[in-house]
Every structure is written in structure tokens, then in C-alpha cells.
Amino acid sequence: MSASDHLIPVVVSNVVEVNPIIKRFEFKHVNGDELPAFSGGAHIVVEMLDDGTKRKNPYSLMSSPFERDQYAISVRRDDTGRGGSKFMHEQVRPGMQMKISAPVNLFALDLRARKHLMIAGGIGITPFIAQMAQADKLGVPFELHYAARSVSQAAYMDSLADRFGDHVSCYCDDQGESVDLETLLSNQPLGTHVYVCGPKGMIERVVETATSLGWPAAHVHFEHFLAPPVGEPFEVHLAKAGIDITVGAEQSLLEAVEASGTPINCMCRGGACGQCETVVVACDGEIMHNDHWLDEEQRAAKQRIMPCVSRFRGKRLELDL
Amino acid sequence: MSESLIEESILSRPTYGTLKIVPGLAHYFLADASGAECVIRVVQELPRDMMEKVHILYVPTPGEAALITSLYALGAKRFEHFPTIDEAVAKLGEWLSDAKMGSQLYLAGTEGLVGQGVAKGEACGLDHTAVQCEHRGSLARRVQCVHCKTMIEDVTTQPVKCPSCDLLLLVRDHYSRRLAAFQGVCINAEDPSEEIEIKEVFK
């Protein structure tokens, strides 16, 4: 069973070009029903039927948790990826019917916080737009520090500055600006929680700086969805189903398992939540562990794999599915 | 002074560790006379330039001065001492209200002091992982009479008579972190005439 088994039929109500690389997509229920409730930081999985290939990619909801008549996501175009963002940018038009999962939140605000400190890099801004609407309504202090490559790429900066004023600061690489993490994280009142969403390097810098300053781990939150990487095709034997499947170059192992009709748990589809953890029955070769879930010891043991993002190279891989 | 002799019990009953300095922007200490040696042990190991980050609060035993002198000599940025735990904990609250994320709190001494320090830290927004406790000295308990809500300090006997409502209380291992107190529940409710021997058990 997984969140994406019960898909919600939606119609694309609007597509907005935010800047040359980012588009916003808005969805309404096909019957005009209210969509499921969610909290800031939640994501949905969007099903894409792309010329015979079924893709399911996770995207953070950026619309207000207090508005249930529609959802909004933003998608950054990645021409070197597997094609999901390219499909969204090129094929999805207003009026089109699609399917989405119910929202799942792996990046929720900690409601015990006395202040929320949000740090966004690039398209990592999207969960914070929903979280700021929530924090604002709850009356809890918050601050957003938003780093982008350039003013033109800082999606939504103007509208956020209009809505939230001084709570929002922007830093543009091309202006030589950057977030001074050491100073920022040294001046937060007790009870502050920090949240970071953006490129891997940025998450690592925030986590390292906070840890070295003595921030408790429970006050440091991050979300880094991985797009499943492309790679060489490989064969997998599914022991319980008794079948062999082939994972295509631009397909994830999870997608290949699903395409074979074999049941498998999953949720985030981005290597973060742990739901799809699968037992490896036999492995003669190398597992490319691309997830954030398994620890170093588990990776080395080659007894577990996260099919949503990890791949295989070698003679034989047999899974307990 | 002996090291902690607390026996394993139910989950609610706090257990304590050994103070150890961890990375932090500021280090706050609260100790009574039993815990002073723990503060001295960890602070005197610190490099000189870290003393700018050290803040110490102390509750001496009445009439005692030697430990005050030793603690003062550590050269902390702030050192203050108070005659009662209540006053020292109130001062800790003042200090923590201006403190920043990355602050660490170290508590050492009797359970009453440690428990009230933990509760104050939590009330000021400190995560429990940023609070370290080392138990030293007496096992005397701070007990709440669950019937009339009176707080009874330094309880050493089992059972104990509530000074406010006169009920004879069984001192449980059930501990409230919010109140920083063990729960005292009437031991002879069915038959108040039942005589129960009062023994000194929390030494």
C-alpha cells in the first residue's frame, strides 16, 4: 500500500511561466471538490503519462494550507534529468486531466518552535511558501533567507517580499551576496527551529554550521528530494513474484517494479522517507545507493536497497519482492 | 561525596549522566554544594579563551565559603551565588531568556536542583538534548502531594506525612518533569487508621 495507490483525479486549472526555467501548475479536483488538507512542507506525487512511460515525481505544495480549492506546485526544468520536468514544461496545459497523490509531509514545521528560521536555495523555496502562510496565520515568528543564482531566477521573491516584508531576505549569487550562516545561526533565540531546502551543498553547510554551534539535531530540519538518477539499464530478479525485470536507463527501479505489477510500498519516491526499503536476497555486483535513508553500515552490507533512487551494476541482483 | 547511587526503576524515574562539555555558543552551569566539584572538574579543563562563554550559578550550603572561592577562581564570564534553589533557578531563567540557540545547560547536584533546572531550561525553549545532568549528594526527593498539591522538599522517608493535609504519602518513583517532583499518593486511603512504619530510605 502506498500514498500513490489512491490517486486523486485533477484538472490543470492554470500554468504560469514564473521565469525561463520555472513554471507553476495549479490543480483543481475534477468534480470541484475540496482537496485533502495538508500542512506546510507537504508534497504530492504527480503521475505523468508520457508516451507509454508512467512517471511519478514528488513536488512540494506551495499553495496555502488554508486554501483547499486548489493546489499549486512549481517545477524547475531540468533538461539533463529523466524527463519528468521536461514533460511538465512541454506537455502539460490548462484543461488537461492528471492524477496526483494525497499530500504527505516529511518536512513539517515543528509546532513547538518559538521561531521558524527558513533557508531556501533556488527551487527549494516552494515548501516554504506554504509554511510561511501557515506560520503567519499561527502568529509564530518566522524569517526566510532565500538564495538564488540571480534576481531573475529568484522565483516569487517579489510577491513574498510584498506579503511578508522584513521577514524575507534574498541573496543573489550574481550580486556576490550569500547567507552568512555562522552569524545567522549564532543569533537565534532559544526555541528556534531551522529548516533548509535546496541543493545538497547548502543543506550540508547549514547542518554542519548548526551542529558546530551546538544546535540540537532535533531543531535542524532539511528536505532534499532526489530525482532518481539516470544510468545504465540493468536486470533484477524479483524472488517472490518469480520474474525478471529490466530497469531502463531513464527509469527508476521502483518504476520498473510498479510497471511489472508487483506490489511495493513507497511514499516520497525521492530517497528520503524509507517506505520502499527492500531486502536484497542476492547481490553479485555493486548497488549504487543514492538515498538519504540507509546508513553507511547498511550500504556496505548490501542487504537493503531503496528502489526509488538506487541502481545496480553487476551480474545479478535478486530482491525479496 | 559519593557518585550517584540511583537504582534502575520505571521509565519515569530520571537517571543522570556525567557532565561533559559539548560544542556550544554558551555554557550555563547550575550546581549546589554536592555538585560544585562536577562544575570544577569540567570547567577547569577548558581553554582560557572559552571562559567568555561560561556562566555559573551556585547554591552553597549555608556558612560554606571554600567552594564559592574555588568556583569564582575558575574565571567564568558570570558567576553568581544564591542562598536558595528557587532564587538561583529564577536567575537561570533570566539568563536563558537572553540566550541564543547553541546554548548548553549543565546541572549538577541533588535531584531537586537538577529537576528544577531541567524544567526551567525546557520552559525557556532549550531542547532536552542541550541539557546535561549529573546527580551528586543526597537522594532526598522533592515530592508533590497529589491530593493537596503541596510541594515537600528534601523528603528522606517512606512514607512521608504531608505537612499541609496530613495524609500519609507513599513516595512513588513516578516523576513529573514539568513539576520536577516525585508523586506522593495516600498510602492508607482504605483504612486511615492503619499504622505504617516511617523509615528513612532516601539518604
Describe it.
The longest helix of chain A has 14 residues, at 200-213. Chain A has seven helices and 17 strands. Chain A is α/β, with parallel strands linked by helices and 321 residues long. Chain A folds into three domains: 3-105, Translation factors (Elongation Factor Tu (Ef-tu), domain 3, Beta Barrel); 115-223, Nucleotide-binding domain of ferredoxin-NADP reductase (FNR) module (Rossmann fold); 234-319, Roll (Ubiquitin-like (UB roll)). The model of chain A has no long low-confidence stretch (mean pLDDT 94). In chain A, strands 1, 2, 3, 4, 5, 6 and 7 form a seven-stranded antiparallel sheet that branches. In chain A, 42% of the residues are buried. The longest helix of chain B is centred in the middle third of the chain and has 13 residues, at 85-97. Chain B folds into two domains: 26-135, Rossmann fold (3-Layer(aba) Sandwich), CATH 3.40.50; 141-200, no CATH class. The model of chain B has no long low-confidence stretch (mean pLDDT 94). Chain B is of the alpha/beta class. In chain B, helix 4 links the parallel strand 4 and strand 5. In chain B, helix 3 runs parallel beside helix 4. Helix content of chain B is 21%, strand content 30%. Chains A and B meet through helix 5 of A and loops of B.
CATH class of the largest domain in chain B: Alpha Beta
- Helix tally of chain A equals 7
Series of H and E elements of chain B: EHEHEHEHEEEEEEEE
- Global Rg of chain B: 18 Å
| Helix-strand category of chain B | alpha/beta
Question: Which pair of protein chains has the largest interface, and what are the residue counts?
Answer: A-B, 20 and 17 residues
Uncertain regions spanning at least 5 consecutive residues of chain B: none
- CATH domain topology of the largest domain in chain A: Rossmann fold
